[in-house]
Each structure stands twice: as structure tokens, then as C-alpha cells.
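Hi there, hope your week has been kind to you so far. No rush at all, and the record is pasted right below.
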Amino acid sequence: MTHCVRVPREDGEATRSRLAAAGILDHGHEIVDEDDELYIPVTDPEGVPDGLTVCDRALPRRETESMPADLLGFEPSYERLGDIVIVDEDDPDRAAEIAAAIMDSDLGAATVLNRASPIKGTERVRDWTVLAGDGTETTHREYGHTYHLDLASVYFSPRLATERHRVTQQVTAGERVLDMFAGVGPYAIPAADRGATVVAVDVNPVAVRYLRENAAANGVADRITAIEGDVRDVVGEYRDWADRIVMNLPHSAGEFLAAAVTAAGDDCVVHYYDIQSAEAPYDPGEAAIRAAAGDAYDVTIETRHTVRSYAPHELNVCLDARLRRG
């Protein structure tokens, strides 16, 4: 018997990426597809992220594919984004060793990148070191949608796939959704695919170009209005408009709460992302939302959700806040 995670087939790639990033994907056994569910082998059931179902079952040994761990003798930490593999290594020699193993394995990577800087600037991009292959552009598939992007020019984190799915699964047909920091569309496109009318804003012109391209490629261009600019300069055209607002800019979303309140309709759900101390991760965001809403709205916090650990003693969290006009 092998420890494994059981997920619906459509969640398979995103879950496999999460488990690989956590360093607990078992490369010695095959992934089994049975009755529309995948059984993904893991090496450490205690390390499986919350919300995933762990079970034991017989899985066949992997006989043909060679994985990086087979070549290295240890399990490297990496993420998949399309045909790009991302590592985060400070030691250049170790980074080069891991990159060589990834390229020599059966992962099918075209490029291996190493993070070379933190996320920086209003356009939320970072520097990369190309360890193997060529280029930073790829096409990523997530929960049935495809996203073409250039990591050197836009922000995109495969680690947030499950969180994006959690939020967009709440969208119902006919909703009006404002995505305040839309990037290449990983919230806007699934929301539109569920029948919402979406206004998607981003200050990064390259991200907006990819957003429009991705909206067309996913067949939802007619339901997404993509706008390049600061959302605070845009919301005046959408006053009292939104049924749902996504605020995925966790370091500084609070600076945009007044704009969110301007755009909110009579009954609006705001998905507010924040990074705070693990001791009280939700209190500052909740206080900020209530202060911005003032007397105009009754505020109910429907969900207090930890997205992931961000740094020692810090959490990336989301507050799902319902604003009802008083």
C-alpha cells in the first residue's frame, strides 16, 4: 500500500504541482486514474496541505520514467509552470546541479529558472536566472483553462491555483465581478467561464495584453473588459456596480479599499488578501474593511482563510467579506 492524495481528475495537475512544491511527491510510484479521480502518491502524508484527502492504496511502481530525485539522490524543491520548472536556490552550484537533473529527467521541461530577486515594483515582476533552456515564456494549464504568459514581464504563481479555484467556484452566472489586480487572468477567466461579466484591471500593460489573449483563447473575451491602469482611476466608471470584487494584492490591498467600496453594489462579496503576523492574521484586514465601509455597508466576514505560509511567523490570508448596503 502507498500513501496518496485522492483528487478529482480536473484538479490533478494543480495538486501534483502543489505536492511537488512541498517536496512530498512520490516519484517512485505511478499516478492512477480511476472513476474520474486521480490517486497521486506522496512520501509523507503528514506534509500534505490542508484540504486534500489522504488515503492508502496499491499503486504500481514507476518503471520507465526518470525523475530529478532519481538522478540527484535527494528530492529537490521545484514548481511547474507549463513547460518551465522553477527552483529557488541560493547556491549557484546546487542550482546548476538541480537544473541539469531536471533537464535530463523525464519531466519534459523546456526551461529551468531560478528566482533571482523578490517581487518588485507596481507591476509585480521579479528577476530570473535561466539555468537551462531558453526564454521565460510558457503556456500554463490550470483547472481546465490555459494561460499564456512571460514570467519575466508578469506576475503568476502556480502555488495559488487552489486558492484561485476556491474563489472562482463561488461565482454564479450573471454576477458582475471586478478583478482589481487581474494579471494574465487566472481569476477573471474562470469567473467569466462561469457566466459572470468581468471587469479586469491591471497596471502592467504586458499583463493586460496577455489577459486579452488568454480571454480569447479560453472563449470568454465577450464577457471580460480588460483595462490597463490603476484601478483607483477606473472605479468611477463602475460605481455601485460589482457583486464580487477580487483584491489579490496582499502587501498593499488596503490602499485600494476605498476604491473597492466605491465599486461595490448593494450586496457585494470582497475577497481581500493580506499578509500578517501568524499571531493575529485576520484582525488588521477585518478592521480595515470595516473602516472603509463605514456606515454605508453592514460588513459580515463569511470566511477567514489561510492561503499559505508566507514567511516565518507570517501568513498569506484571505477574508471573504460580504458588504450589504445599510
In short: The chain has three domains: 1-62, 66-135, 159-325. The domain at 159-325 is CATH 3.40.50.150 (Rossmann fold). The first strand starts at residue 2 and ends at 8.
